[in-house]
Amino acid sequence: MKTVTVKNVTLGEGAPKICVPMVGKTAEALCEEAKMLLSVDLDIIEWRVDFFEQVTDLVAVEAVAKEIRALLPETPILFTFRTKKEGGEREVPTAYYFELNQTMIQSQLVDLVDIELFMGDEQISESIQLAKENAVKVVMCNHDFDKTPAKEEIVSRLCRMQTLQADICKIAVMPQSTQDVLTLLDATNTMKEQHANRPIITMSMGGIGVISRLAGETFGSAMTFGAAKQASAPGQVSVNSLRTILDVLHESV
Ligand SMILES: O=C1C[C@@](O)(C(=O)O)C[C@@H](O)[C@@H]1O
Is residue 143 annotated as a catalytic residue, yes or no? Predict the structure, then answer.
């Protein structure tokens, strides 16, 4: 089992790491958010760039990334453009999606980039190669905002991400019943016990899925997303409660 270290944060050992999304729409709002996050007890920041009004302007994106980096020099930054079909704010052409991610990888202003599993294998491989050359980690992911696929399907998607050489593999699914939450946890546990050779991140979204955002150390999820100012997905718990609960669980494991 390989761990992944970014700055001074190691994923894949100990308690799950806390990642807080930044969802500002303007450069000004993002800088305010970054300053506010300086005093929050978190491990990683995710810039959800699909919320940013100027996301189609590469120069503007890079300029803001520079400002965020300067404000938070020690904090690992995950760069995420979440597509509309996977629950994000907007759609861009696939070619631009990769251009945006590859520009950010080459800028080395971020530590990790999020790449969605179903964007096309060839461009994914190209981006992963580029990320390796630039010492940027790839969090590959898949979301289902409507339902929870069968356990075998969840395991198979996570294994596929490993085959594609992602550094970290992530899946977020929506439960329609408590059984669905158990399905996600069962798939996570099976990954941990039988397949995973790198950190994986899983969550069951919405209210009934909250338990999955807390129990990562028990079942095998290396990171959990918590809300500081505004949640970026349904079911995210506030960062402060998250740290308390993760610590309690860590002490008992
Ligand atoms: O992929 C994820 C997980 C997430 O959707 C969640 O459910 O916490 C939140 C997103 O911001 C992030 O990119």
Answer: yes
